[in-house]
From TrEMBL:
The keyword Cell inner membrane applies. Belongs to the UPF0283 family. The lineage of its organism: Bacteria, Pseudomonadati, Pseudomonadota, Alphaproteobacteria, Hyphomicrobiales. The chain crosses the membrane at residues 62-83, 95-116. This is GTP-binding protein. Its main location: membrane.
Amino acid sequence: MTKSASGKTPSNATNPARRKPASFRIEDVEIVIPPEPEPLPGTPQTEAEVAGLPKLERGLRWGSIFIGALGSLIGLLASLWLYDYVLALIARDDWIGWVAVVLLALVLLALLMIILRELAGLMRLGRLDKIRHEADSAARQNDKPLAIDVTRRLKRFYRGRDDLAWGLQRLAEHENDIMNAEELLRLSERTLVAPLDPVARSIVASSAKRVSVVTAVSPNALVDMMFVAAQNLRMLRKLATLYGARPGFFSLMKLARMVVTHIVLTGGIALGDDVIQQLVGHGLTARLSRKLGEGVFNGALTTRIGIATIDVCRPLPYIEQQRPRFRELVAEVAGLN
């Protein structure tokens, strides 16, 4: 900026390059968005933008048809063989035939009981899931009739359990005195669900410790994988049974799928940073061997799965009680407490 001979800066009137301050309304501004330019020749384009790209038409999946037909054929042949074999034994009309009849009856009875148990497990798991979702909705919307319905179904669900007899009695004595939906759910949680939470935490911690120790001392990676999978399924079954699900094989598989979905949706699969920070914070990273580090990591993974299983199997959301903290359980598993 230049100065005059007197040493003063020229004013705005003598400096036409400078613009005077002006005010305007934001509503008066018209934003013009220019059209997107045409892509240059040779520019990579997405599948949907490429003109003339042949579309893949979904037809018959011959691979699936082949596998399904082959499995059905093998099952049919095995059934026919078993049917002819049993008929031949019965046609003998001696003690061997009668033994075959008794064994066949036992097989059919056991199969029927297994099917009924699986159906009962699936139904109880579905009832738990429905009660939890409706309880969460009643707490968020302060819906007193829905909270009353949830409480009644929860009492029917836990009826006959000796470990919850005192809680059922206390809930029956005080539920009619509460006018608020959240307070009613809080009482239900305190009397029926809270006594089960410390046991669930103990199950998760003991399973994670067992996985950590075996993984740290086992020299075979295949044995590690099989043991970790077996322990996690065992932990899932224990937690589900604790909260009243009583899962069979298929209901256990459904529960495992629900737990994996819950972990993915809540972002809990990213546990590496938590474990590393926990270990670094106690200055143990340099002293951990590779196998011991693997043991701690597998124990942390089991802990994460256990917490997710509690979230899925717990019939009520956390209203008064505190959700198990991942860091605290990992510290307990690693012996940092």
